[in-house]
Amino acid sequence: MHVTATFTDIYVAVSQFYGRQVQLLDSSRFEEYAQTFTADGEFQHTPGIPPARTHAGIVEELRRFNTRFDNDPVQRRHIFSMLNLSAWKDGAIDATFYALVLTTRPGVKQPVVGPSCLVRDVLVIEDGEVKNRSRQVEHDHMFSLV
Amino acid sequence: MHVTATFTDIYVAVSQFYGRQVQLLDSSRFEEYAQTFTADGEFQHTPGIPPARTHAGIVEELRRFNTRFDNDPVQRRHIFSMLNLSAWKDGAIDATFYALVLTTRPGVKQPVVGPSCLVRDVLVIEDGEVKNRSRQVEHDHMFSLV
Amino acid sequence: MHVTATFTDIYVAVSQFYGRQVQLLDSSRFEEYAQTFTADGEFQHTPGIPPARTHAGIVEELRRFNTRFDNDPVQRRHIFSMLNLSAWKDGAIDATFYALVLTTRPGVKQPVVGPSCLVRDVLVIEDGEVKNRSRQVEHDHMFSLV
Questions:
Q1: Which of A70, A143, B14, B100 is the most buried (most CB within 10 A)?
Q2: B19 in contact with C at a CB cutoff of 8 Å?
Q3: Quick one: which of A109, A67, B62 has its CA closest to C140?
Q4: Cβ pair A80:C83 closer than 8 A
Q5: Interface contact flag, A140 B111, Cβ < 8 Å
Q6: Are A84 and B20 an interchain contact pair (Cβ–Cβ within 8 Å)?
Q7: CA C111-C11-B4 angle, 5° bins
Q8: Quick check: C111 and B116 CB within 8 A?
Q9: Angstroms from B96 CA to nearest CA on chain C
Q10: CA of C108, closest CA in chain A: separation in Å?
């Protein structure tokens, strides 16, 4: 993305970035998913657990997380929606959006729906490509009643 | 949006508008949600009930509607999809899209899914910003069998 | 779309194309849906069944498929998401995305959710308009355990 990139260009580049990134994740291509983060990127997808850091750390966290499916084959899908690019400062973009997780098991047409999440990303443009500097996921069923 | 705005610019501006608008709604920031409508905006989200009008009227209707959750804390999410900008006349845009409502309760990972809706918006550009002139929501489970 | 169309323009044109196309499908406007394919277009939406070909063939396949709802009135919705335009060669675009089917019955607020699908489209630009040259749908619940 050049210096002259417009809001329109950025919004579309981010949409395309998420389309590709999510399909990598749901195909268990964790190394390539990790590469969508900056080298010092932070990825926090489970509330209460400290964020994974660096590409190697993100891959390790995804492998650990997915061991739960070792004897329970599933096709997961993450549906991101309602993308809101809410700030642009020092070359970083705050992106806030919804994520809905679907989990399908072989032979069962209806996926398990949930959790529903709110995701807060910080994105940067590195050498013309969108990258995640950080991702923080909040789960809707863990909201505070205070 | 200038006079020279392209279809691409408009489509993205509308997508960003909905991302922000929905997050305001689902955060119960009803005053800010109402401000996404024009001063004389119309908001009709329950079939058979006349539309709310003006910012104050929209806030009042949302407060009334949400009293059902007073003793039943929930996190609601509205997922808009399949945006179709189908007409552009006298500066107004017809936007038609799907809306799926998700309702999550504390400690329950699976949201209640539904209703599924068809939304018909009329949008205008005021001082360079997208605004709702009107919104009309049809619920899929109330469709006519005629 | 002119020769000078940017990636941004294409991504938005494809998004708008899908918004309109899906609303035609879900309104049972099968002739108009078929017209969103090229004259020799291929449409394969049920694994194991050979693709329908040509506009007439696509209409016939959709009529055949939908006879299952003859005595079971429903409002179907297809939610496409996570659009990834992954290649551009000889004027054709590979588009990969998720599709989630929702089926609502009269008086029942919660739709039946599923199947969840992966869709592989080949798109072309004909006379400035996006068209499907082919569509291939994979169902998540039929994934191979090999």
A1: B100
A2: no
A3: A109
A4: no
A5: yes
A6: yes
A7: 115
A8: yes
A9: 9
A10: 17
Q: Which of A24, A102, A119, A130 has the most C C-beta neighbours within 10 Å, making it the best mutation to test the interface with C?
A: A102
Chain B contact present for C96, CB below 8 A:
no
Using one digit for the tens of pLDDT, what is the confidence trace for A50-83? 999 999 999 999 999 999 999 999 999 999 999 9
Helix axes A7-26, B7-26, angle to 10 degrees: 60
Indicate the residue type of A65: F
Helices (H) and strands (E) in chain A, counts: 3, 6
ipTM of the shown complex: 0.95
- The answer, for C75 touching chain B at a CB cutoff of 8 Å, is yes
Chain A interface, best mutation among B10, B21, B24, B77, by max A CB count within 10 A: B77
pLDDT digits (tens, 9 = 90+) for B16-67: 999 999 999 999 999 999 999 999 999 999 888 899 999 999 999 999 999 9
Task: State the smallest CA–CA distance between residue B25 and chain A in angstroms.
Answer: 12
Minimal CA separation from A78 to chain C, in Å: 9
Which three-class secondary structure string do you get for chain B? Answer: CCCCCCHHHHHHHHHHHHHHHHHHHHCCCHHHHHCCEEEEEEEECCCCCCCEEHHHHHHHHHHHHHHHHCCCCCEEEEEEEEEEEEEEECCEEEEEEEEEEEEECCCCCCCEEEEEEEEEEEEEEECCEEEEEEEEEEEHHHCCCC
- Give the residue from C146, C115, C130 showing the smallest Cα distance to C45: C115
**pLDDT tens profile C32-65:** 999 999 999 999 998 888 999 999 999 999 999 9
Q: What is the pTM of this model?
A: 0.96
